Amino acid sequence: MGNTPLRKVGIALGAALILIWCLLPVAWIISLSFKSQESITNGSPGFFPSEGGFAGWDNYVAAWDNEQFRRAIFNSIGISLIATLLSVIVATLAAYAIARLEFRGKKLVLSTALAIAMFPVVSLVGPLFDMWRAIGLYDTWPGLIIPYMSFTLPLAIWTLAAFFREIPWEMEQAAQVDGATSWQAFRKVIVPLAAPGVFTAAILTFFFAWNDFVFGISLTSTEAARPIPASLSFFVGSDPFNRPASLLAAGAVIATLPIIVIVLAFQRKIVAGLTSGAVKG
Amino acid sequence: MGDPQGRGAGSAVRRVGIGAALVLAAGTLSACSSDGKPTLNWYINPDGQATLTSLAERCSTDDYDIAIQLLPTGATDQRTQLARRLAANDSSTDLMSLDPVFVAEFANAGWLAEFEGDAADAVVDDDVLSGPADTVQWDDKVYAAPQWANTQVLWYRQSLAEQAGIADALQDGTATWSQVIDAASENGATVGVQADRYEAYMVWINSLVQGAGGDIVSDTEAGVDAQVDIDSDAGRAAAAVVQQLADSPAAQSDLSVSREGTSLGAMYGDGPGEFMTNWTFVYKNYEGTVSDEEFADLAWARYPRTVEGEESAPPVGGIDIGVGAFSEHPDWAIEAAQCVTDPEAQLQLAVNDGLMPARASVYEEQELVDAYDAGLLDLYRESIEAGGTRPKSAFYNQISGAVQSTWHPPASVDPEKTPRESADFIRDVLQGKALL
Amino acid sequence: MSATTTAPAGVAKTPKSKNASDRSVAENRLGMKLVAPALVVMLFVTAFPMLQALWLSLSNYALTAPDDRSFVGAQNYVTALSDPLFWRTMLVTVGIMVVTVFFELVIGFVFALVMHRVIFARGIIRTSILIPYGVITVVSGFAWQFAFSSTNGFVNAWVPFIEDNFNWFGEQFPALFAICVSEIWKTTPFMSLLLLAGLAQVSEDMIEAAKVDGATWWQRMWKVILPNMRAAIMVAILFRALDAFRIFDNIFVMTGGAVNTESVSFLTYRQVIEQFQIGMGSALSVLLFLSVLVIAFGIVKLFRVDLAAARQEG
């Protein structure tokens, strides 16, 4: 290439493009959430709230005052956390075996994981609904936690296995030689080394559970278990005949906040997890 | 990141414990209230939440409490949520607010408890308007109690109608859709309807067809073998109206995704206003949100005619209260259903929320007369009585879905093709020969 | 990454027990025990329901008319496969898949190149690129639906040659365009991260060598970089294509399947959950599953994807 100034400009432009790409729609939904509901009804085209159509925090207050929405947040947090926890525990066991042990059926597990990662989720909705209503799991937390676990396991197993392969396991023995008990060796040496991988897998699993929509709308019918994405799609304002676009936007921003916080805090770990867990040459 | 992991295992176990406890709590929550008194769950649609909540309190007794559970906005979504619970034989669905068109389907599926004897006589006595009374009966049995009735009228601005010279025709109730659309086009105004692919579009089509003296389907007792009548002169007249609006400058730009709320803004927007067919809530919606001067300009007339010389068939909707067939307390639930549909309840819904009574006597109540323009109240009642109901079929949802599918988007409607195609499609869907 | 593949297994086998074959039997048993829970959970929610769907798909069974249930053999499949609606949804789905994966790949690759070379603001760029990835699909759908809205959005005002009151959701192609934009916006960052990982594995030495040999930037790209990223690109295509084929959330939120925008997933959902046609819905579920198999097989064969890499076999 040689032409370094040109190249620099190109990269700077590219970087600006990436930032616009990623942040513009987010800025838009935030801007929309500040349009007043009245101005939405009357039509308020444009990126920013029109003059006199600025709602302040009204939409956020109204969204938060919505009992169903608060329940949905509670459901989503609870269900996603439990699913994440269980999924990571089960995946850790499996990933350890895959990374460290030779056993028959390893290929079967990896193939199953691959198959499930590609599985068309909607095709399960019918039979699962039928099963859940028969065994009483319909519209309950476990009714969502179980499918979330199954569908996050492949990603969790891959991410963890990739991390575990990089752990210098011989250090465990070295510690034992130095007089540590095997539990101490495991706790002091292996756990700190494995922890980042487990943590990364947990974040990715949580994202999946938080994002799910198909199970969320088909396997629930009340706020007993309905998670945020489903709740947003059924969002009801004070005026039932008017879909409250700006109120919905406020709800959407609230639902996105946890994700943004996690991304800001753990950017490095997520990138490492995504790239190691999903593609290896 | 090293340190917190040590505590991971312990807190993990605790968290699972808490999680399990929460799950159990969520499961038992609905069954009993704290003092051991059973709770009846009432699934309501979002119209008039505040009034319904106070109704639930008033109708709670020493034997039971009534708790409100909120359903989504659209009629189709409400049906889906309820039907899924009932298909799962859910015993916690005690009372439910049902769009009248789904009573037949639910009753046929065995999901509704029958109102028998005195209870049946009480909920469909002579005071109940004939339209709503008809919606709660299936197979000669009573399966729900009418709570309120809804209807559509034509809302517009008096100044616009006078400018267009159709004010008199509107007040006589003789104006046709064609006249209204032309009047709007010639004066830079628009016509607001509901034509997104959802239930209210079916409401519009059904009224247009009935307004031309026809029906979409008849002999609906025959279930999947019902007679499909939409491929008729009436069906073609209805299609002609949809086509005329879609092709005219009076069509709103979001016609194909228009809903009850989307055309409200055009009434007092920049232009001369609009003609809008919409439900009764519109009056309360504008009252207080627009200036007094603008509000005084709001006018209303009977639903436009599809064809000249034939009385219009205004849409009729509303809510019936059904009792779940799997309820653990069906007798109490039926008692509660009567309580939440009594004249006092209907009066409150009408005065507070603009949801019109299903009982004739309530229209005479002073409190309601004071809350509304007398002419408007008469128009509502006249419309509900003259209104056309949608087909009463156990397969209504399929019929409606098939009609929506073939008639949407409105710009694709063609009188020569659409009625014929939709008739074929309804038949195929009912017979299980076509996917929907 | 590649260096680590052999070490752990070797370490694991360091002599602790005297008898090597005893040890491998024990290891075998332990391995199977450790993966058993994962395998059971994965299969319980997929294989078992899928078999049930297979069985249900042979009856005419609607939840709203439970008494009319009857065995109809393959009738549901015949009906579905001879129905123009099924093929239309299939065409729409494949169209969405091809278009979105193509643009994601191209834009994602550009993003990956930029991220690979950028020196300043690395953290900010990587953080922001994770935001679309983390945003709920439903939220993305709403954001773009409102953005394209003629009454409250900004797209009509910003894009030249588009009338201010143009209704994007009134016709099939504009509506599909809006859906694809939402889909591409959300998933391109993920694609770019996958490609970035692949890019990092291309050895700088080879690129330098090519440079010395006088290869232009374009030649280096086609002859050195892309061939060395092949595995990464192929696996990314495989995953994204199958993900795009399952598209549901955006369609549900943005059009509700109106104006002929239904995907196969959406059609299946509507049959099962809205129409309660469990029999026909199950038949569609099975057909959807088979389609995914066919597409996966097609991509693996056509692009010669390394399945071992896709399976993450270290």
From TrEMBL, chain A:
It is found in: Cell membrane. Residues 73-266 form the ABC transmembrane type-1 domain. GO terms for cellular component: plasma membrane. Keywords: Cell membrane, Membrane, Transmembrane, Transmembrane helix, Transport. Signal peptide: none annotated. PROSITE patterns: ABC_TM1 (PS50928). InterPro entries: BP-dep_ABC_trans_perm, MetI-like, MetI-like_sf. Gene3D superfamilies: MetI-like (1.10.3720.10). It is a multi-pass membrane protein. One of its GO terms (biological process) is transmembrane transport. It holds the Pfam family BPD_transp_1. The chain crosses the membrane at residues 12-34, 73-96, 108-129, 141-164, 189-210, 245-266. Belongs to the binding-protein-dependent transport system permease family. This is Carbohydrate ABC transporter permease. The lineage of its organism: Bacteria, Bacillati, Actinomycetota, Actinomycetes, Propionibacteriales.
TrEMBL record, chain B:
One of its GO terms (molecular function) is maltose binding. The keyword Transport applies. The keyword Signal applies. One of its GO terms (cellular component) is ATP-binding cassette (ABC) transporter complex, substrate-binding subunit-containing. Gene3D superfamilies: Periplasmic binding protein-like II (3.40.190.10). GO terms for biological process: maltodextrin transmembrane transport; maltose transport. It comes from the Bacteria. Transmembrane segments: none annotated. PROSITE patterns: PROKAR_LIPOPROTEIN (PS51257). It holds the Pfam family SBP_bac_1. SUPFAM superfamilies: Periplasmic binding protein-like II (SSF53850). Keywords: Signal, Transport. PANTHER family: MALTOSE-BINDING PERIPLASMIC PROTEIN, MALTOSE_MALTODEXTRIN-BINDING PERIPLASMIC PROTEIN. Belongs to the bacterial solute-binding protein 1 family. This is Extracellular solute-binding protein. It comes from Nocardioides zeae.
